[in-house]
Amino acid sequence: MSAMGGKEPGGGGDPAWQATVEDATPIEGRENVQPPAAPKTVRRRKGGAPAEGAVFAIQRIGEQVEGKASGADDALLRKLRNGEFPADLRVDLHGLHAPAARRAVHEAVQRTWAQGKRCVLVVHGRGVHSESEPVLKETLVEWLAEPPVGERVLAFTSARGRDGGVGATYVLLRRSR
User: Checking DSSP bridges between strand 89-92 and strand 119-123, what pairing results, if any?
Assistant: First the structure.
């Protein structure tokens, strides 16, 4: 046991993680592998107040991220993850600063939803050229939860390799009425 809250480095405090990795051989140079983060939720806000029951369950595994709105079907998320929804619109955020990128995402979602279409491919990059962390990739999740866009989004997930991999995100929209 370490002095850091009783947990050993590498997620030693989680019995499920320990059972998973007990027979694993460490990769040279990768001593600090952490267990996958538990899913978290992002509340959608309307007028600054949390919206009751309107949440995304977010899961991050390495560079991959996915989320689904409260009540969304797991099968839809799986189909989205597998690239089974063709992108109706592709928006490329390369070269944009955060405010312009946010506007582009909001406009793309609103336009696609208004046309009765379902899927937007947002190409944000991996942030390898960012000065600190991948700004656009990390804040995209927040932008997708903001009103009025948040009410339109059903699920999102990192794209398949052919569509940009972890440098892009599929966004599945609710059906317009």
Answer: parallel
Closest CA to 138 of 123, 127, 148, 122: 127
Length of the chain: 177
The crossing angle, in degrees rounded to 10, of helices 135-145 and 98-114 is 40
Give the predicted TM-score (pTM) of the model: 0.68
**CATH code of the domain in which 47 resides:** 3.30.1370.110
Which structural domain range is residue 1 located in? 1-35
Q: How many domains does the chain have?
A: 2
Per-residue pLDDT tens over the stretch 115-167: 999 999 999 887 655 566 667 877 888 888 888 888 899 999 999 999 999 99
For the beta sheet containing 119-123, the strands, ordered from the edge strand earlier in sequence to the opposite edge, are 40-46, 49-61, 64-69, 153-158, 168-173, 119-123, 89-92
Cα separation, 156 vs 153, in Å, equals 8
Give the Cα separation of 76 and 171 in Å (integer).
11
